[in-house]
Amino acid sequence: MSFDKSIWFFLLLIGQVSFAQEVPLNQESLVKQLNQELSGESAKRNLEYISRLHRMRGSEDFNEAIDFISGKLEENDLEKIELIKIPTDGKTMYGTQKARLAWDVEFAELWELEKQGQQWVPAVKVGDWESVPLVLAQDSRSGEAKAELVDIGKGTSPEDYVNKDVKGKLVLTSSQPGAVVPLAIQQNGAVGIISYAQNQVTAWWKENENLIRWGHLDDFSEIETFAFMVSLKQARAYQQRLKSGETIMMHAKVKADLHPGNYNILTAVIEGSDSQLKNEEIVFTCHLDHPRPGANDNASGCVAILEIARTLKKLIAESKIDRPKRTIRFVWSPEIEGTTALLNYRPDLAQKAKFNIHMDMVGGGPETKAIFHVSRSPHSVPNFIDDVGEAFGEFVNVKSYKYASGEAVDYPIVSNEGGKEALHAVLGEFHMGSDFQVFSEGSFRIPSIYLHDWPDRYIHTNYDVPGNIDPTKLKRSGFIGAGSAYFLANLGSQEVPTLLDLLRRKVLKRASAMLEYCLALSPEEQENTKYYFWAYEKGVLESIKPYAELSKNDRDNYTTFLTNLQSTVGEGQPRKLSNSKASKVYVRNAAIKGPMSVFGYNYFFDHYDGERPEIYSYKGVKGSGSEYAYETLNLVNGKRTNLEIRNTLSAEFGPIPLQMVIDYLEALKSAGVIN
After folding, report:
1. Could you write out the three-class secondary structure of 146-198?
2. 454-483 in b/e burial notation, b at 16+ Cβ within 10 A?
3. How many CA atoms lie within 13 A of 431 on its CB side?
């Protein structure tokens, strides 16, 4: 069959398959019980409490949020509730994460002054930590200054300081505070920073001038200073006044400190019923830390898994569902750094974790402009659980659309106080950005389902408030997560035929998408993409083996299905490229566990003395530099050659030069990460 004809064949076939929506994986009873018991209203009430707290790692408010959730777990009879305290001193390494000190704030205010006679006196309060904690950049230190304001633009290059005297003054910058410290504070003697950095770029990022965005200083820096964050509207007003020649005097005062503390990580379980399988765990994760209010990011994920825990435990207690065979664990921790520390500090938990379901921003209503995703693990971790998550996501998509369109459906999955619109979840993509990437990283290789909203117009701002959270969205995300977890917790040989039917449908869809994508590639890259597509799909089949026995008949039938499909689409062949180091093989340093870029710390750049590898700024057809870099290290396994790693990356994210991959691998070697 020709290339064009094969595309049309699959488009026709997929069109037929996609309309045959049934209850996912024959879980009719489970779907019914989850639809009845999950409460978006209950989840939102919990969210409203958590959103009152400025939940920075190690802080008093973070610990108060932990206490609140722990109390709810006790009320709902969760098992083995445990608070894990991992010491943080600013020095200790937990895998690739250097333990960041705890940060607490007592007081922070920024005032504009006006001159009365010979005195400058307070005139307008620009911001205070008590009202809007986001006005103080994270990891600011104590300090006080009455000083003139100077606009330094970006402030990240020497040219930004030409003909500007900033010594003893406050600087106004469009950059993140930490980025201007070396030049503004250390070299040129400024006493503090006022930033209007417009982080988290979306289509709406400069439309709302009133947003105050999250700012950061480097807590490992030896330069102690403070920084305030102001809105774009406020910054533009200052700039106009400064251009007209006006002197703007400010008074900044901060009482805050970094100090030794703990990564406090709360965990609880629903213990498995099978004496052997209960040591295998499906792990729900979220990140509890975030500036106030942080409603969608990420109070939403925290309350969603809390609601899943309550629901499953109640249904088990009422004998409406059986206790799962495998253990289901729930974890609340600081984002990425807490997860990296946990898996290194408690290797027993890493060993037990077989699947991860991560929830980070799962409640955004229409005002947030959020698009919901059920994302997959990277290709370096081929697995079947992604298809399980997508099956439940697709079910909600179809049912919610029919319900919104006025049809009578059995399971609309809505909350009485929530919206009725269709979900329209995006299925089947890989995104980076949260704790799941620690689980899926090559050190641990734990496959993950990542539930999240993106974009979100209010992420990391003072407008990320409970009023923008939709109870229906919380219920639907809880449904997808709970359904996936419960199926995985009970997976055995009996479920294999149903699972393989699902995989057949998913392979057809992925094959169709792959063929369409190939139209944008050269003939050589088309062949390479096909070859690694089939390698991935075979890996998905093999991923079932540790959890359920495949009968000879099931394996033979599925293998025949793949073989026939492969002969129709084409087997493909790996790209052949000439390079003296193409056949070189690396092995991961087993003593270094975790991704290179964690939170507030980058292990690679801290241990590498050379120039920044070009791969970090590379832009592929379907991936960016950070994704290429992350996956390159994941693919190092002591067997793959440099060329095979390059070819796998190219099939996943788009063609990348072989030399660029080799250069990064050599850099990782020089940093001691690989050998």
Report:
1. EEEEEECCCCCCHHHHCCCCCCCCEEEECCCHHHHHHHHHHHCCCCEEEECCC
2. bbbbbbbbbbbbbebbbbbbbbbbbbbbbb
3. 20
126-156, pLDDT tens digit by residue?
Answer: 999 999 999 999 999 999 999 999 999 999 9
- Provide the domain limits for residue 557: 3-11+503-569
Number of domains in the chain: 4
**Strand 170-173 vs strand 192-195: parallel, antiparallel, or unpaired?**
parallel
Specify whether 481 is located in the same domain as 603.
Answer: no
Q: Is this model's pTM higher than 0.90 or not?
A: yes
**Which residues, in sequence order, are bridge partners of residue 624?**
619
- Token pair of 386, please? 């992604």
Q: What is the structure's pLDDT at 580?
A: 95
Q: Contact 262/58 with Cβ under 8 angstroms? A: yes
The token pair that represents 202 in the structure block: 């979306």
668 and 560 fall within a common domain: no
Asked if 280 and 428 sit in the same domain, the reply is yes
* Residues 72-109 pLDDT 10s: 999 999 999 999 999 999 999 999 999 999 999 999 99
Do residue 279 and residue 370 come from a single domain?
yes
One domain, residues 349 and 487: yes
Q: Phi, psi (5° rounding) for residue 354?
A: -105, -30
Residues of the chain with pLDDT under 70: 1-21
